[in-house]
Design brief:
heterodimer, A: 524 residues, alpha/beta, Rossmann fold, 3 domains, six-stranded mixed β-sheet, 33% helix, B: 394 residues, mainly alpha, two-stranded antiparallel sheet, 13 helices, 2 strands, 68% helix, 1% strand
Chain lengths: 524, 394
């Protein structure tokens, strides 16, 4: 390592900075995505970049990684201005980026993926032995455990992410950009990642981390920069910052990280599932004899690691996936294997996990999207003829009530930001007054302000006597909202608990199939 | 409304660019592109309205220009209908290459129904025309529905099945109307159907020459374009078709039956193409099926280009059909400085460039949106987490 690591927290001249951005401005038409942003990164520093969806974080990082060129301003590396035309230039200058969605080839081994594009050669031939040796070297130096021979398709997300980081280190990255690295990880994997990042920092790597999760920022960052609507609001030392303060900086107003809620008063059973079996797209049984009940006036949260059958369960309940066997009842009505329309008409509102693929027709207008379930009924249509006026007046009311910002009723849903798209889905599903609201990953990818809003709506739904089935990979969300927590593991409910009688460790262990008692002891 | 204007800009730019490139070809062979394009416009009869300009600044032959213009409009009529046939299926996300087959089966049944009705119900030519028109629409609809049903219930790709149905229609016609075929005109030695009596053809509304004068079929085409627009924009059926075309998954989530939408959109598309067959056989040409034409007529295929250029909108398809008709009829008049082969082919070159540009844009869009979405940036990384990762360090 050529660069001596400067101790964090010491302000330095340009030469002592790993990286400096001066007055970066980027416009897309009339939209100013980045407005004269100054940002500096010290050697061996972890610098967190915070901001709501659409605040301009990705645009800024894409310029730093050579994918976009700034309209104004300059980028300095080691005190010298640089001009990058592509990510290849960025890599040459020692910048590495780990994208939110991994750029790995599943059918190749980890070592092959890491060296891809910069393969060690011997007499013009690929020297795989040398490649593996280098991968082992780097991985042991930084404590990034991977098996170089393993196929990417066979390893977990955490390992894939380590491979991505190794890929950047293999190319001698001195500056590492991580875009929402913890979004896909289990709590255990998050802890591991944070340890790796600390190790990298100790060895002089400078890190920019983009995230929505304030608790992680507090744990790991040295300094924090907050963007709001394209401009930098401030850069502060992490020491002394509070989550509440950061959330306020991001949103521009006070935010409640945990929404207030009263006690629940569960009534009659609304949803009863018994011995449910469902196959996934590959015909593998992913829901295996699941049973659960959701009552009126309660929120039941299903915790679990992605891929344990939650997606198939939600789709089966919503009528979008064939039920192999078992039964689903909504109040006294059998909705096993109902069509999506029958399920909706029976009283199931569904906030689908992938709002862009399922929840919205992105090229339909807001008005048309709001009528997705009831376009065929009066007053949205009459004798087969659509009633655009009825659609528009209703969507206007929904926009008002659910605070959907950024587009007119006749604009395509695509033009909304992610948070506002989700608000539109939520508005539509809640406005149909469902007996059961099925919310799958309802705050995925949303910023703190939007998350707070969604949480409030779910609780309001509960308080109005609705049953809510929440599926989430975020334990904070599960604990913050649920009246009962169910852990789903390998297609079954393996643990049921009340949030005040359990803790994140117990739930986290159950999520990974661990029996809670002995491990909980070992951990304490 | 800015969006709508923007939507019209690209097809316009495409056409202009195609004419510029065609002009370059003309320059390459040593002729003057302005002269050539003027001859093209005159050949298509576009100069006809100029005779009414005050003071007659431009010399117009009223008779010739009228013949040319009526010829252009007559030629445009089936192109608009086949364009609608392709466009409607497109709006449901289906690529209907079967316009040609649907056109022919529509024409076959139209001829037979018209003949049967006039044979058995003398003096009722008008009723024969109406029945034959309906029969053509139903036949085209049924033919296209085969591909729709195969797609919806068997997953057979509509491109493959409609192409196969085209050949079945063409060779079926060759057998039916060919020499010794069951429907061949027994009084003729040619492989043709019987000729429709004039009473059982579309009424001429403008023009001198039977077979190339403008008939009421043009109203059928315009009415179809209006119906196309209304169905898509204003009916629940159109809502379903558009939803499926834009996002079949979201449509299914919303409760739309994707299968039903596929079958219905193909059925409606086929009706348009069947009407195109009726418009040709009862409105222009020789008022009979000539088997020598079965593999020559390309209205069904030109309809693909018309729909692409018209961006699958009703008004766009009407304009696109007119443009391709202008190119076709105008080319017959291009002579100055060009060899006859090039004169005719110039129109084809321009058509080709238009198709290339429009098709190229579609391909780029597909890659950027549809094709890209498959491998999806929104998809979670493909992995199985059902078992905890064994390599987690202790």
């Amino acid at each position: 390592m050529a660069d001596p690591a400067a101790p964090p927290g010491v302000a330095g001249s340009s030469a002592e900075l790993a990286l400096e951005l001066r007055g970066i401005t980027k416009r897309f038409g009339a939209l100013v995505a980045n407005d004269r942003i100054d940002l500096d990164l010290r050697h061996g520093e972890i610098h967190a970049l915070l901001g709501e969806n659409g605040a301009g974080k990705s645009t800024l990082m894409n310029q730093l990684y050579g994918l976009l060129r700034p309209d104004e301003g300059e980028i300095l590396i080691g005190g010298r201005p640089v001009h990058m035309r592509s990510s290849a230039d960025a890599i040459r200058l020692g910048i590495g980026m780990v994208h939110q969605h991994f750029m790995l080839i599943p059918v190749m081994t980890i070592a092959e993926n890491i060296v891809l594009g910069d393969e060690p050669q011997r007499r013009g031939m690929l020297d795989m032995a040398a490649a593996e040796k280098r991968v082992r070297e780097i991985s042991s130096r930084y404590g990034l455990a991977v098996d170089p021979h393993a196929l990417v398709a066979d390893v977990g997300v955490g390992t894939q992410q380590r491979a991505e980081i190794l890929k950047a280190l293999y190319r001698n990255a001195k500056v590492l950009i991580l875009d929402e690295p913890t979004a896909v990880l289990t709590p255990h994997e998050v802890t591991e990642l944070l340890a790796v990042l600390r190790e990298l920092r100790a060895r002089g790597t400078s890190i920019i981390i983009i995230t929505h999760k304030l608790d992680e920022v507090m744990q790991i960052a040295d300094r924090i920069s907050v963007l709001r609507r394209g401009a930098k609001v401030s850069t502060i030392d992490a020491a002394g910052a509070t989550e509440q303060g950061l959330a306020e900086l991001m949103v521009g107003r006070p935010v409640l990280s945990e929404v207030e809620r009263g006690t629940s008063h569960p009534g009659r059973a609304v949803l009863s599932i018994d011995d449910l079996h469902v196959l996934d797209d590959r015909d593998i049984e992913t829901v295996r004899g699941l049973a659960l009940e959701v009552r009126a006036g309660e929120i039941v949260g299903i915790a679990g690691v992605d891929g344990n059958g939650q997606a198939e369960l939600a789709e089966a309940v919503a009528g979008m996936r064939h039920v192999a066997s078992g039964s689903i009842k909504l109040m006294d009505r059998d909705v096993t294997d109902a069509s999506p329309r029958h399920a909706a008409e029976a009283g199931i509102g569904h906030i689908p996990q992938d709002r862009q693929r399922h929840g919205l027709v992105l090229d339909f207008s807001l008005a048309e999207n709001s009528a997705l379930h009831d376009y065929q009924r009066e007053p949205m249509s009459r004798h087969g003829w659509l009633q655009p006026k009825a659609m528009i007046s209703r969507v206007k009311a929904l926009i008002e009530r659910f605070d959907v910002r950024g587009a007119a009723p006749s604009a395509p849903a695509r033009s909304l930001s992610g948070g506002n798209q989700q608000k539109l889905v939520l508005a539509r599903e809640i406005s149909l007054e469902p007996a059961l609201l099925l919310a799958a990953q309802p705050t995925r990818g949303l910023d703190v302000g939007a998350i707070e809003f969604v949480h409030r709506q779910l609780i309001a739904q509960r308080d109005a006597g609705g049953a809510v089935l929440l599926i989430s990979f975020e334990l904070d969300e599960i604990f913050g909202l649920s009246d009962r927590i169910l852990v789903m593991y390998e297609g079954r409910i393996t643990l049921e608990a009340r949030p005040d009688q359990t803790n994140e460790r117990e739930i986290g262990l159950a999520m990974t199939g661990g029996s809670s008692a002995p491990r909980a002891e070992a951990a304490s | 409304m800015r969006g709508r204007l923007h939507g019209a800009l690209f097809p316009l730019a495409t056409v202009v660019l195609a004419f510029v490139l065609g002009g370059l070809v003309v320059i390459l062979v040593g002729a003057n592109p302005f002269t050539v394009y003027k001859q093209l416009a005159v050949g298509a009869g576009l100069d006809w309205p100029l005779q009414y300009l005050p003071g007659h600044p431009i010399q117009v032959d009223p008779v010739v220009s009228e013949i040319n213009l009526t010829h252009t409009l007559t030629y445009a009529t089936p192109l608009v209908l086949t364009g609608l046939a392709v466009g409607f299926a497109f709006r449901c996300g289906l690529f209907n290459i079967g316009g040609q087959g649907q056109y022919w089966v529509g024409a076959y049944l139209a001829v037979e129904v018209a003949l049967y009705t006039t044979d058995h119900w003398h003096g009722h030519g008008r009723e024969a025309v109406v029945l034959a028109t309906l029969a053509a629409a139903l036949m085209g609809s049924a033919w296209a529905s085969i591909a729709g049903l195969l797609k919806a219930y068997r997953g057979a790709h509509e491109v493959i099945s409609t192409i196969m149905l085209n050949w079945i229609a063409i060779f079926g016609g060759q057998w039916l109307f060919g020499l010794g075929g069951p429907l061949q005109d027994k009084h003729s030695s040619a492989p043709v159907s019987r000729t429709l009596p004039l009473s059982a053809t579309y009424n001429s509304i403008w023009g001198f020459i039977p077979g190339s004068s403008v008939t009421v079929a043009i109203f059928i085409a315009l009415g179809a374009a209006v119906a196309y627009t209304l169905i898509l924009a204003r009916t629940t059926l159109g809502y379903e078709v558009r939803a499926v075309g834009l996002s079949a998954e979201a449509a299914r989530y919303g409760g739309v039956s994707v299968k039903r939408s596929i079958v219905l959109s193909m059925a409606i598309a086929g009706a348009f193409a069947g009407l195109a067959g009726a418009a040709d056989v009862m409105g222009s040409g020789s008022f009979q099926i000539q088997t020598t034409n079965l593999q020559v007529v390309d209205a069904g295929f030109t309809g693909i280009a018309v729909a692409l250029l018209g961006r699958n909108t009703g008004i766009g398809i009407v304009l696109g059909g007119l443009l391709f008709a202008v190119l076709h009829t105008g080319a017959n008049n291009v002579s100055s400085g060009l060899s006859p082969e090039l004169a005719i082919n110039l129109a084809t070159i321009i058509q080709g460039v238009i198709i290339l540009f429009v098709g190229g844009e579609i391909a780029v869009r597909w890659i950027l949106s549809g094709g890209g979405r498959r491998r999806g940036k929104d998809e979670p990384p493909a992995l199985a987490l059902s078992s905890p990762s064994p390599e987690a360090p202790a």
